[in-house]
Amino acid sequence: MNLHEPVMLPEVLQHLAVAPDKTYVDATFGAGGYSRAILQAADCKLIGMDRDPRAEGLAQQMVQIFGDRFSFVPACFSALDQHIVTPVDGVVFDIGVSSMQLDDPARGFSFQKDGPLDMRMSQSGPSAADLVNTLEEFDLADLIWRYGEERASRRIAAAIVRRRDEAPFARTLDLADVVKGAVGHGGKTHPATRTFQALRIAVNDELGELRQGLEAAEAILKPGGRLVVVTFHSLEDRLVKRFMAARGGKRRGVSRHQPLPEDRLPDPSFEVITRRTVLPTDAELAVNPRARSAKLRAAARTEAPAWARMTEGV
After folding, report:
1. Separation between Cα atoms, residue 104 and residue 187, nearest integer Å
2. DSSP states of 94-155 as a string?
3. How far apart are CA 46 and CA 27, in angstroms?
4. Which helix (H) or strand (E) covers residue 45, if one does?
5. How far is CA 89 from CA 47, 179, 271, in A?
6. CA 47 to chain centroid
């Protein structure tokens, strides 16, 4: 299995400001690409975190290499501050599905090869098959529109419901064929791309996890500590951008769900480092196709207290 190179690695190391005698968190350990590079870059300590059970075996290999400089927490990164109580110098997130997950047909994330319609990162809870076989047509269309930004969501949902009345969905290629039949094939990407993205995000509550993970990172970072986030689609990037803008003192970035008068807004808890989105270099794109949609944003923790947790938005 090819685990691939971690995306935008030089940029991650630069913005994380890796240095000796500091402690970092790789909140999306995956195959350990960022963790390994951080530990090799300086005589520091690192805590890896991942909810995918398969990551635990790879983490054991890291212990053999780096000893007590590396430790691993098998949990969702939304619970960072529940498992890590000592302040840290940096937290990095690589958001979305990992190559380790995407390239394994048995995990059901991709329509490139046939596999069970699963998509569960933690390998527990309701699967993608459960959603497409049980959601009402309106709710299914709303999910595909909201998380996949798919304009043909109603047509796709109607086609799914018609087909599942004959037989439930269980395989990835089966669903991909039904979506393709509903919308046709025009464009550079497969017609099922956005539908699969939407189901994966919903199955794993990826946006909710990301929001909570950012807030948890805010709680455990030392003053001056770095938050570095690599995203791969607009929904993730928009959430990160708004979080950093709000916590960085840009008043219009404060959540509309919890408005506060100007004189009651908390002091900025972050200073945004990346005024412009950092994109992969042409050289990386030439050798690593996964990087084509990657965007990096970074911020440094201030002395101000962490903001109160938000129930919705950022």
Report:
1. 26
2. E-S--HHHHT-GGG---SSS--BS---SSS-S--HHHHHHHS-HHHHHHHHHHHH--TTHHH
3. 10
4. strand 45-49
5. 11, 45, 15
6. 18
Kindly tell me the number of DSSP H helices and DSSP E strands found in the chain: 13, 7
pLDDT string in tens for the chain (314-residue length): 334 579 999 999 999 999 999 999 999 998 899 999 999 999 999 999 999 888 888 899 999 999 999 999 999 999 999 999 999 999 999 997 766 666 667 676 788 889 999 999 887 889 999 999 999 999 999 999 999 999 999 999 999 999 999 999 999 999 999 999 999 876 778 899 999 999 999 999 999 999 999 999 999 999 999 999 999 999 999 999 999 999 999 865 445 455 555 557 899 999 999 989 999 999 999 998 889 999 999 999 999 999 988 655 55
CB 93 within 8 A of CB 27: yes
| Residue whose pair of structure tokens reads 């490139």 in the numeric block | 112
pTM to 2 decimals? 0.90
The encoded tokens of residue 305 equal: 């207290």
183-188 contacts, C-beta under 8 A, 24 or more apart? 183/152, 183/155, 183/156
Distance CA 148, CA 202 (A): 10
The answer to whether 78 and 209 are in contact (CB under 8 A) is: yes
Give the DSSP letter of residue 61. Answer: H
Judged by DSSP in three states, 272 sits in strand
191, two tokens: 């017609």
Cα–Cα distance, 161 to 176 (Å, whole number): 14
What domains sit in the chain, N to C, each tagged with a CATH number?
Answer: 9-100+206-301 (3.40.50.150), 110-203 (1.10.150.170)
